[in-house]
UniProtKB/TrEMBL annotation:
GO cellular component, one term: plasma membrane
Compositionally biased intervals (Gly residues): 46-80
Transmembrane regions: 103-123, 135-152, 189-212
The entry's keywords: Cell membrane, Membrane, Transmembrane, Transmembrane helix
Record's subcellular location: Cell membrane
Membrane association type: Multi-pass membrane protein
Protein name: Uncharacterized membrane protein YckC, RDD family
InterPro entries: Pra-immunoreactive (IPR051791), RDD (IPR010432)
Primary location group: membrane
Amino acid sequence: MSTDQPAPGSPEDPYAKPPGDQGGGPYGAPPPSGPYGNDPYADNPYGGGQSGQGGPGNPYGGGQGGPGGPYDNGPGGPGNPYGEPPRDPLAGMPPLADSGKRVLARIIDVIIVLIPAGLLDWASGGTDNFSSGKSALGGAFFAVIGFLYEWFMTQNSGQTVGKKLMKIRTAMLDNGSAPGSSAAALRALVLWLPAFCCSCIWFVILGITVLFDKPYRQGLQDKAAKTVVVSTT
């Protein structure tokens, strides 16, 4: 794979959200600022406009980031039962990947990792016969190769071979870009380290968390790295 991929999250990253969708809701970014700075009503003692952000002398703290009051309508504003709903981080991103496609992609990736791990295990004498199963040494090969494979592929494009075939990808929840090196490494570590001793049970546990997690269908690896898996079609 080419190493000339754009930096994750950079303007050239084809997977990042458009600037207007960064953290925005279904209607995009707020209106442009007015002639008096960020809030065209900043000098209004009653804090109008975008709800008087920081408007001096406003005892009711009308808006996002205002000085606060019993009617503060910003997200989480104190005393406001009718405040703005939390912003959806998935706004501007493709739909979440189908769970069935994620399972198939994982099976493909496990087979890809098993082949070199099994050959190394057999060549090193870890098993007397290639078909006799995985030894402790084979488990180590499986976990290490799996980690390196997942980390390298994910940080480049958000896609392993299995994900490419299933037309899905891993994306950062906050901006939709391909995970950077650190996030990809953390995700790969959670995925593959326990596979050293209990790969079948561990992948079943991860699959269950994906099936039942709400609202983002995040496996434990996704929660650790703050990622989601989305469709590319």
